[in-house]
Amino acid sequence: MEHYFACNSDTAVVETKQGKVRGYVYDDMTIFKGIPYASAKRFHAPQEAEPWEGVFNATNYGYVCPLMEDDTANAELKVPHRYWLMNENCQNLNIWTPACDDQKRPVMVWLHGGGFWAGSSIEQMAYEGGNMCSIGQVVVVSLNHRLNILGYLDLSDFGEEYKNSGNAGTDDIIAALRWIQDNIAAFGGDPDNVTLFGQSGGGAKIMTLLQTPAADGLYAKGIIMSGVATGLMEDSKGSGKKLVEKMMAQLQIDDVKELETVPYASLVAAYDAVKDELAKVGAYVGCSPLQNEFYEGFALEKGFRKETANVPILMGTVFGEFGAFAPSKYDKYKMPKSQQIKIIEDFAGKEKGDQLIDLFEKAYPERPVLDILMLDFLFREPTEAYIRKRSALNQCTYSYMFDLDMSIDGGTAPWHCSDIPYVFHNTELVPSTQEKGVTEKIEKQIFDTVMAFARTGNPNHDGLPNWPSSTPENEQVMVFGKNTSLKCNFDRELIEKAVEYLGEAFAKSMEETEIQH
Q1: Which of 76-80, 113-117, 362-366 has the lowest mean pLDDT?
Q2: Considering only Cβ atoms within 10 Å of each terminal Cβ, which end of the chain, N or C, has fewer?
Q3: SS3 (DSSP) at 14
């Protein structure tokens, strides 16, 4: 296949509010990388990027937010990663567009995973926006923003200038969405049809934006992928005063202003030295959004805001999530069912094990019963609760489950992040997705779902059974797998019992398993 490339003084040049930017043309797309959407002093609210003279070279990815600990290569076969230059000046975004014209295409804004403390817009290979742009004829945007103690450290007790430092990372995202409103039409996008989509921490960021008045009107729809998990990505509680004072004592400084210029590595070291002591007593340790006048708090605890109650949401999880990262000790497809049952009964006890097996076989009749030990409830249970409560407010809440085994070790339950390549139409970039006669079919079903939702707020298309929105009484779940089908309340009782019977054992096993999110 021959490819087309162009990068000249008069090619792929767009006028933005701050000045001209130049990207490049590749095949049927125009691509821009690393465009600044804002700037910010440490712990302060972002400001619009300063105008520039001449033409900004938007052919390189911008800095990503510094991480608090070194990355290590792990589970790369399941989730291929990329690593990039880190700097606190990380407020930048990337754009893939079919053309810089006046066509007003749907805009897809990707919010990356990694909780509120890690990750980047390019961290995973599957985050590449080219296929989604070209095949779906949409404008794709991904962005970087402040994370961890740079984005979520509350210093509000130390002065008005820090009043929302506990949500600076979310403030950055809102600044990016404002930039998109101001500029995306020049890149061929429709500012009135912006769909946020994100996985894990990215999904949690969408739920946070729904609860943040300053974000109202900056987006039209949301796709939340594995975005809410018991015990993870929860709101911060209380004031950051004690944490900050202890950090200053570690650093031997008296003026909080000095925290703005302390080398990042020293700042992290001071935080690490004091956070565990505070966490043990439930005190504020930051690194997640803080409820205040800016952010109204997690909806399941504080209630859904009426202003965003009718924003269409497509929301779901993956069958295995974190549990499927751990390599299985057993060959489930060669092991007799009687032996599988014994393993489950040894794990949960005979009475509880038999109840789980009965419920599991009703929910997942095509799966070996041993897959009970891979079943996710950490994400699924709060996701079900979120869908029940949100669907009471509207008729535009849609539920899905990704339930497709991957071609590793004879068939591995899908793990956290395993649905991302299908959403982006990027399975070609993730070798473990490949299964002849299966991959292309499922990728098309999922991708067409995402594109339908982006265009209309409704995920239905010709390649799926009819998909009603959910109600509090009936969760209508599109289960994507080898035999994609719609199921109603299919796992509700199973998940309830799994939480009750397996929760403690699962938590212990996770302590022994390094996970990525």
Answers
A1: 76-80
A2: N
A3: strand
